[in-house]
Every structure is written in structure tokens, then in C-alpha cells.
């Protein structure tokens, strides 16, 4: 078990290295470099050349690469020339925190919706309740978060203005306003994610309910409620956890648009603002951090998974 | 040997696989075939028998150069083909072919029979016209109707599919066909049909076969000579009649005693039930590999690996310290010697 | 010897047709997908006005003249929604084609050759899959410059690892199957085996993944354009329209409603199409 843990952590580090390299490739090697990005695509050549020299882009690529990796290993994420020399870390990490706040609450909401819905759908397979649940899940599955977000905005902030249309006030400053600003984004992400999870929950439950040992348990006269809860729920929960992890990863991406819609100053919002203001030094770190968050979440999910089902670690 | 020159010579071929070790990291090396030697003459059928997992299919695939041997030499028509690369092997492959066990898996499910039979011609650059000309002929050889050409494999029964696989193997007029358990996936009634077909084709086309099977009675029906494999080693090899009437290795004795229809000794032989399971091939027993299940085993067997030799008064070669037919050996030896069974 | 024992006397095509017509949802999905395609192809004939023509006052509510009202400079929203299907399908096809063209060969080679080729490919895809797709696409567009071509490239490249993974997995399971060994025994070259033995068996799974990736590509294009990083004005893109519609929500909500519904319906159609195709293409997947 400890060996497995060590191996997964090492794999995670390897992936992080590849991720950091990929970011380097995108921002330094792909045509259209940071200097062009900072100045715009129609900047005068002299200004472009001067900025290239200042950023060290004329140094050999290998040197640039080692400088980039060296700084990352030391935890130095650099300063932003477009943000007046501010520490990039000081911009990115608070934003990441606000994104995670949204993501965690949304995941909780999604699980709270999906688990009972998926269970009812599976246990009452073929009934009208199942059909309703499945139609809802399919519709939600195809619903882009930003379409739903704007629809909710239209209904609850525009037509019957009972909730703020977005924005961000720190919890410490005005708890009530903070929570009311959370409602719409959380409902948006939570319900769309719940649709994914419901499909998995239903499939996982059905698989177990149709499995031989459950039939045996039933034949032995075990009360069916106990079968449903003890056997089916526990076994369906293992794939569900993986799916929660995957959803969490997807969220980090989907959040970009949601944060933009509800002007929630998270990591995605910061990234867009930085792209629009051509602050490439912030963009590359934001991209890196969002990938790192994804890798870490996956790692945690894998470890939780192997803890729940020890066979995984051995295979 | 029957006098004709050897078509295939296999000299001390060893094949190893690396396998992921269970319950942990790292890999282990599995010796699937351990210095096996055999020859096949032009037009001869050699049967290769053994339990599943004994390495007989791996030996067949090594001979076909589908798996690379770790040691040893393979000669085809006197030419060393052991180290030919993928491209150099191509012309050689026209002369020997393989038919696999599972006719459900050995035909490309996305091809019609026409395309399956054209594959050998395409690969060897013999042209569409040749493929089209020969396809009906090949179907005729395996006794399938022409209508089969435009159908997909899943539309056929197991026996019919095996006929298609045989037709494909025959396409380039090979001299040798490796038959890797060709009938064991089929119903018993179909087995006889396919065995008859194979016998007819052999007579008609002068083919040589390496017939791999776990069923000794099937091997007995078709083979000129028989080789018996146990845990990667050939333990006995000789003419069919010698091996069947006077089996020397205890393992051969045990296998033969389990064949109900085979009463060469008039039914006097009692069935020998082997004790225990096949040892873990990753950690084969020291000395003779069969000793952990052998009633003749003594200390010597754990220390010394018997070599495959022709003993006095025998016509076949056998790898055993105490060879001989079971009926002729009188009393059995006692219980296993104390150190038998302790792994290496 | 006759073929009467074969279970399937009816040709596969006929059976597929029956499966399609027999299942109402499948039939509906196919009709809807064709309808969407027709909408894009015949947009000129179907839309009441041109995509970029200023035909009315700015930001008008729906009327009998302009069914969804007008946008910020007085173009007909309904017509732009119809024309928007072109961009969505164009980006969908383009990006998915890039993903297939690179991902499938990469996956086959990785699964077939194994060893170093496989290790390197898989580690690199691990790295690329660690990026949330839209963020990788955003970064790529930000660097390349936002326009239609770069949007297609960015979305397509992001999807390459997914195809490579999927195809590699199936290739691994097919690689040691006996029909591949048979082709090797016949002397088939590596290229022959990959192209003739393996590829035909990857078509159905790739087709299903194609439709799902298509849906993702449509979604991603809309998201990028919504953020102002995708297709640039005045090209009618649903994502862009949704972005404008959000700021004009209080004046003409129908801009956002029209564009949002179009995105939703398109993604729904392609998601259902994926289900339909996986049912139709593999009716005898596990016959034994």
C-alpha cells in the first residue's frame, strides 16, 4: 500500500513535469510568443524586439527552459510586468481559493441530488420515476453550463430579481451577500454535474442489483431494503467517487465561463482578464496551477479509491 | 526418421516471456519453452501434446517466428531463420503457415471471406487477379460453397470458420502448417470432419503438419510421430506407435491412461490420476520438473534434470531417470521422497 | 455443405436498418442530425435575412418581422442563429477531423509497437490530459491569436490525446488476437497490419467517439467565442451571440435564449447520436 502510494505520487510528479514543459512549449515555441501576446499582433517591430530581449526570449531555448523549470522548482512564480511588478502568486492563489470554494460547494450539491435520484432510478427501474430521472439526466448532460447559467440569470436576477446577478463580496465582509452571490453559480454547476453523476449512480446500482450475489442474497430472503443499501449502494459508491473526481476536474475548466458570467473572481476569471489585458506571465501560471489542481485531485481520488477497494493497489 | 530430408529443424529453442509479478512491482521471467528440439520431415505429421500452459502453443508460435526465441536455432529447409527480420521473413512465410485454435478470433471480423482469402496474395504482392482466380479453388479444397465468398465470418459456424482459416493457410501452397489446437474449440462431431479434411489435404497436397493438441486421442489419430511436453520441456518423443504402445515417461503413461478409447494393451491399464496441480511455471521444481507429481520420484530426481536420450531397448527418446511403461514396471514406488515438492 | 446453419441469413445492412427504424429514439436522432446539417447547408435559403445585414433598429424585441428581435446593431437574431449553425458544424468537423487524423494513427502505433513508443506517447497524453480542455484551448488561442482557423486548431489539438488513448486501448486488446497473428504469420508488414487488420476494427468505436468529440468541439467553440477568444465578429457564432445576449439580457433576452437553445439542441443531438451509433454499429459485438 505504501509502495503504491509512493508510485502514484511519483507518477503525479512526472505528469506535473510534463505539464510544466507543455506550458513552456505553448508559450515559448509555438509561433506568436509572449512578446507578441503582450504587445498585440500588430505592434511595431522595434518595440517587439526590445520586449523580447527584456523577457530573455532571445536566449537559447534550452537556457530559457532551465530557467523556467528552475524557478518553478524553487516555488518562484515570478512577477507580472503588466501588473506593475506584482507577485504572480499573490494574484493566482487567492483566485484559486475562490474557484475551489465554488467547486466544492457545487460538488456537494451534485452528490446530494445525484445519489438519491440515481438510487430511485435504479431500484424502480422501468417505472415512471426512472423515466423522469433518466430524461432529466440526459437533458442535464447535454446542457452547457453557460447556457443554464444565463437562463438562471435571466429568470432569477432579471425577470424576478430575487438574487444578485453576480459579483463577489468576501464572506468576512458581508456573509449574507456572499452566500446570496454563491447561489446561482452553485446551482448552475451543481445541477449539470448532478446529471452526469446520476447516470453513473444508476448504472452502478443496476450492475450490482443484477449481479449474482445480490440475487443470491434475495433468494436467501434478505430483506430487499437491506440489499439495496448494504450491497448495491456500497458497490456503486466506488465508481461514483472516480466520477466525482472526473467531474471536479471538468469543473475547473467549466468554471472559466461560469466565473465570467457571474463575475466571480476565480482562477478562470483571472485567466480571461489576463488574456484580454495580455498579461501572459499571469496566464501561464494560471494555466499551470489549474492543471496542477487537476493532477492533485486525480491523485487524491486514486488514493481514496485504493483505500476503498484494496484490490486496485495490487493490480 | 523416415528418410526424407528434414523440412523443419528446431534446435534447443528456449522462449521466455516477461510477466508482471503478481501483488507487487517488477517483472518476472517465465520460461515458456525450455530448450526444445524437434524435427519435421517433408510430408510428416508430428503431434505435440501436453496440458494447457505447458508451452506447446508458445513453441508453435516461436517456430512461426511470431514470438522471438531467447536461445536456440530454427532451420527451415536447412536455412537458419532464427534471426531474420520482419521483412526478410516474408518470402519464407509462404512456405509455412499456422491455423489457430479459436476460429472466432482468427478471422478479421470486418472482412468478407473474399478479402480474408485475398490477404495472403495482397501481402505477397501477387495481385488481385491471382487472388480472385484462386479463391474458388481454395473454398473447394476445404469443401465450402462459392456463396461463402461474400459473407462475413460471424455468419458461419465454428467448423465453417475453421475451414476458412485452413483455406487461408493453404493459399500460398505452404509445405508446413502449424495447427495450434485446430479442433479443440469445436463440437465433437465437427472435430471429426475437420480432422478428416486435414488428413485429405495432407494426402492431396503433400503437407507436413505440426499438430498441437492437449488431447492425446486426437493426436493419436493424425500423427506419424508424437512429442510430449511438460512445463516447457519435451519429455518424450518418438513414433506414434512406440509412444502409444510403450510409453516411457511417467507423464506419458499418465496421459495415456486417461484416454478411454485407447486400449492398446487391451484395457488392462488402470487410470493414473496425477496428484497436485501444475507447478508455478515461474518457479519450476529443481531437477526433473515432473517430480512433484511423479510416483517414481526419488532424491536423484530433485538434484538432476534428466536429459532427453534414447535409452537401451527403446526406439523413442525420453527425459526420465526411471523410464518404462507403467504396466511393465510392476510395483509402484512408495510415497514422495522427503525433499520432493520443495521448490527451488 | 450448406450455409443454412449460419444464424444470420439476413445481410447485416438490413438488420441495421431495422434496428434504426424500430427504435423511435434512434430514428428521431438521425432525422434531427440530418435536419441540423440541412439547416447549415441551406441557411441562405432558410434565413429571412443575411447574417451580417443591418435590417432594423438596434436591440428590438421580437416582432412578426424579426422573430427573435434584433441585436446590438440591428441585425436579425433569428437569421444569425440559423447561420450560426454553419460555424458550429464547421468548427465541429474541422476540430474533430484534426483530432482523428493525429489521434488515431498515434493510438494505433502506440498500442501496436508498445514499449518505448507507447511509454512516451502515454506519458505525453497524461500531461496533456491534465489540462482542463478549455483552458488548454484558451491558452493556445491566446498565443496563436483568436480567429476561426486557430480556434479549430486549438480545439482539435486538445482532443488528440483522447482519441489516442481510446484507440490505443482497443489496439492493445486486438494486438495479440489471433487474426492479427494470422496476418503476421502471412508476412504482413507493420504498416499492413495497422492499416488493414487493426484500422477496420477501430472504425465503429472511432465513429462513436467522433460524434461525442463533435459535441465537445461545438461546446468549446461556443465557450471560447463567448469569452471573446474564438470566432471574431461579424461572423455569426452562437457563443459570441450568447455573450452579447448576456449583456443585453434586460433589453432583448431572446438573443441569449435563441443562441443558448441552439447550442443546447445541437449538443443534445450529437450526444444522442453517439448512443445511437454505438447501438447500431455493434449489434453483435459480443456474440459469444
**Largest beta sheet: strand ordering of chain A:** 1-2
Question: Which percent range describes the beta-strand content of chain B?
Answer: 15-25%
Give the total of beta strands of chain B: 11
Tell me the β content of chain A: under 5%
Mean pLDDT over the full residue set of chain B = 85
Question: How many helical stretches of chain B?
Answer: 10
Query: Which structural class do the helices and strands of chain A define?
Result: mainly alpha
Mean pLDDT of chain A: 81
Description:
The complex is a heterotrimer of chains A (315), B (344) and C (288). Helix content of chain A is 79%, strand content 1%. Chain A contains 13 helices and two strands; from the N terminus they run H-H-H-H-E-E-H-H-H-H-H-H-H-H-H. The radius of gyration of chain A is 24 Å and the shape is globular. A seven-stranded mixed beta sheet of chain B has the order 6-7-8-3-9-10-11, with helices on both faces. In chain B, helix 3 crosses helix 4 and helix 3 packs parallel to helix 5. In chain B, strand 7, helix 6 and strand 8 form a beta-alpha-beta unit. The two termini of chain B are 37 Å apart. Chain B is globular. With 344 residues, chain B is α/β, with parallel strands linked by helices. Chain C contains twelve helices and no strands. Chain C is 71% helix and 0% strand. With 288 residues, chain C is mostly helical. Chains in contact: A-B, A-C, B-C. Chains A and C meet through helix 1, helix 6, helix 7, helix 10 and helix 11 of A and helix 5, helix 6, helix 10, helix 11 and helix 12 of C.
Amino acid at each position: 500500500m505504501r509502495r503504491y502510494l509512493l508510485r502514484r505520487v511519483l507518477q503525479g510528479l512526472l505528469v506535473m513535469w510534463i505539464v510544466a514543459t507543455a506550458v513552456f512549449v505553448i508559450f515559448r515555441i509555438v509561433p506568436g510568443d509572449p512578446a507578441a501576446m503582450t504587445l498585440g499582433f500588430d505592434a511595431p517591430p522595434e518595440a517587439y524586439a526590445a520586449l523580447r530581449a527584456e523577457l530573455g526570449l532571445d536566449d537559447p531555448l534550452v537556457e530559457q527552459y532551465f530557467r523556467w523549470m528552475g524557478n518553478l522548482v524553487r516555488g518562484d512564480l515570478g512577477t507580472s510586468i503588466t501588473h506593475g511588478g506584482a507577485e504572480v502568486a499573490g494574484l493566482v492563489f487567492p483566485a484559486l481559493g475562490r474557484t475551489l470554494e465554488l467547486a466544492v460547494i457545487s460538488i456537494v450539491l451534485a452528490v446530494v441530488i445525484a445519489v438519491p435520484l440515481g438510487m430511485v432510478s435504479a431500484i424502480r427501474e422501468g417505472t415512471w420515476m426512472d423515466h423522469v430521472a433518466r430524461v432529466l439526466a440526459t437533458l442535464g448532460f447535454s446542457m452547457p453550463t453557460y447556457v443554464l447559467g444565463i437562463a438562471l440569470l435571466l429568470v432569477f436576477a432579471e425577470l424576478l430579481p430575487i438574487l444578485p446577478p453576480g459579483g463577489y463580496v468576501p464572506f468576512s465582509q458581508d456573509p449574507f451577500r456572499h452566500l446570496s452571490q454563491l447561489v446561482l453559480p452553485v446551482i448552475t454547476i451543481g445541477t449539470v454535474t448532478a446529471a452526469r453523476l446520476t447516470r453513473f449512480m444508476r448504472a452502478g446500482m443496476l450492475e450490482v442489483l443484477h449481479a449474482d450475489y445480490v440475487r443470491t442474497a434475495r433468494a436467501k430472503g434478505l430483506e430487499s431494503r437491506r440489499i439495496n443499501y448494504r450491497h448495491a449502494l456500497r458497490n456503486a459508491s466506488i465508481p461514483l467517487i472516480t466520477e466525482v473526481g472526473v467531474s471536479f476536474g471538468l469543473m475547473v475548466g467549466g468554471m472559466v465561463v461560469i466565473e465570467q458570467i457571474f463575475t466571480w473572481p476565480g482562477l478562470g476569471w483571472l485567466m480571461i482578464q489576463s488574456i484580454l489585458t495580455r498579461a501572459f506571465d499571469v496566464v501561464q501560471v494560471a494555466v499551470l496551477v489549474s492543471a496542477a489542481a487537476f493532477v492533485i485531485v486525480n491523485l487524491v481520488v486514486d488514493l481514496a479509491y485504493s483505500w476503498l477497494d484494496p484490490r486496485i493497489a495490487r493490480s | 526418421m523416415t528418410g526424407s530430408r528434414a523440412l523443419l529443424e528446431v534446435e534447443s529453442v528456449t522462449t521466455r516471456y516477461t510477466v508482471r509479478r503478481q501483488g507487487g512491482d517488477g517483472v518476472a521471467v517465465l520460461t515458456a519453452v525450455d530448450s526444445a528440439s524437434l524435427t519435421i520431415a517433408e510430408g510428416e505429421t508430428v503431434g505435440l501434446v501436453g496440458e494447457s500452459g505447458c508451452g506447446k502453443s508458445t513453441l508453435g508460435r516461436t517456430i512461426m517466428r511470431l514470438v522471438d526465441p531467447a536461445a536456440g536455432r530454427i532451420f527451415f529447409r536447412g536455412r537458419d531463420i532464427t534471426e531474420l527480420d520482419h521483412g526478410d521473413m516474408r518470402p519464407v512465410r509462404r512456405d509455412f503457415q499456422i491455423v489457430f485454435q479459436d476460429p472466432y478470433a482468427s478471422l478479421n471480423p470486418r472482412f468478407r471471406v473474399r478479402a480474408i482469402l485475398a490477404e495472403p496474395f495482397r501481402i505477397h504482392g501477387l495481385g488481385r487477379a491471382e487472388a480472385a482466380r484462386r479463391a474458388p479453388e481454395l473454398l473447394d479444397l476445404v469443401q465450402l460453397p462459392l456463396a461463402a465468398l461474400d459473407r462475413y465470418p460471424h455468419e458461419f459456424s465454428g467448423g465453417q470458420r475453421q475451414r476458412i482459416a485452413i483455406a487461408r493457410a493453404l493459399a500460398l501452397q505452404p509445405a508446413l502448417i502449424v495447427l495450434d489446437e485446430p479442433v479443440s474449440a469445436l463440437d465433437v462431431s465437427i472435430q471429426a470432419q475437420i480432422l478428416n479434411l486435414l488428413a485429405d489435404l495432407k494426402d492431396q497436397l503433400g503437407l507436413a503438419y505440426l499438430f498441437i493438441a492437449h488431447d492425446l486421442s486426437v493426436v493419436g489419430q493424425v500423427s506419424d510421430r508424437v512429442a510430449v511436453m511438460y512445463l516447457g520441456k519435451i519429455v518424450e518423443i518418438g513414433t506414434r506407435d512406440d509412444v502409444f504402445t510403450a510409453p516411457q515417461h511417467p507423464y506419458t503413461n499418465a496421459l495415456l491412461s486417461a484416454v478411454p478409447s485407447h486400449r492398446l494393451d487391451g484395457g488392462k491399464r488402470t487410470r493414473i490420476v496425477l496428484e497436485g496441480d501444475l507447478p508455478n511455471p515461474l518457479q519450476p521444481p529443481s531437477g526433473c520438473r515432473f517430480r512433484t507429481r511423479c510416483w517414481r520420484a526419488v532424491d536423484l530426481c530433485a538434484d538432476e534434470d534428466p536429459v532427453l536420450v534414447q535409452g537401451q531397448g527403446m526406439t523413442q527418446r525420453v527425459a526420465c531417470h526411471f523410464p518404462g511403461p507403467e504396466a511393465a514396471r510392476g510395483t509402484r514406488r512408495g510415497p514422495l521422497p522427503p525433499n520432493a515438492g520443495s521448490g527451488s | 455443405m450448406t450455409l443454412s446453419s449460419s444464424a444470420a441469413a439476413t445481410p447485416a445492412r438490413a438488420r441495421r436498418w431495422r434496428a434504426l427504424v424500430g427504435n423511435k429514439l434512434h430514428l428521431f436522432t438521425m432525422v434531427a442530425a440530418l435536419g441540423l446539417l440541412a439547416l447549415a447547408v441551406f441557411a441562405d435559403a432558410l434565413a429571412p435575412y443575411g447574417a451580417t445585414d443591418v435590417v432594423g433598429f438596434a436591440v428590438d424585441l421580437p416582432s412578426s418581422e424579426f422573430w427573435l428581435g434584433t441585436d446590438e446593431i440591428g441585425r436579425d437574431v433569428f437569421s444569425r442563429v440559423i447561420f450560426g449553425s454553419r460555424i458550429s458544424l464547421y468548427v465541429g468537423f474541422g476540430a474533430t477531423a484534426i483530432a482523428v487524423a493525429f489521434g488515431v494513427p498515434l493510438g494505433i502505433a502506440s498500442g501496436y509497437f508498445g514499449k518505448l513508443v507507447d511509454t512516451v506517447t502515454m506519458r505525453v497524453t497524461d500531461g496533456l490530459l491534465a489540462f482542463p480542455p478549455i483552458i488548454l484551448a484558451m491558452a493556445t488561442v491566446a498565443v496563436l491569436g483568436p480567429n476561426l482557423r486557430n480556434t479549430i486548431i486549438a480545439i482539435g489539438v486538445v482532443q488528440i490525446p483522447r482519441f489516442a488513448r481510446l484507440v490505443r486501448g482497443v489496439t492493445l486488446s486486438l494486438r495479440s488476437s489471433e487474426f492479427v497473428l494470422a496476418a503476421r504469420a502471412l508476412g504482413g508488414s507493420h504498416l499492413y497490419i495497422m492499416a488493414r487488420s487493426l484500422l477496420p476494427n477501430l472504425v465503429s468505436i472511432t465513429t462513436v467517439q467522433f460524434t461525442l468529440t463533435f459535441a465537445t468541439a461545438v461546446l468549446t467553440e461556443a465557450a471560447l467565442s463567448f469569452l471573446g477568444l474564438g470566432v471574431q465578429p461579424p461572423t455569426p457564432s452562437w457563443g459570441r451571440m450568447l455573450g452579447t445576449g448576456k449583456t443585453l439580457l434586460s433589453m432583448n433576452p431572446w438573443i441569449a435564449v435563441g443562441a443558448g437553445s441552439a447550442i443546447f439542441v445541437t449538443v443534445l443531438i450529437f450526444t444522442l447520436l453517439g448512443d445511437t451509433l454505438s447501438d447500431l454499429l455493434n449489434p453483435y459485438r459480443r456474440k459469444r
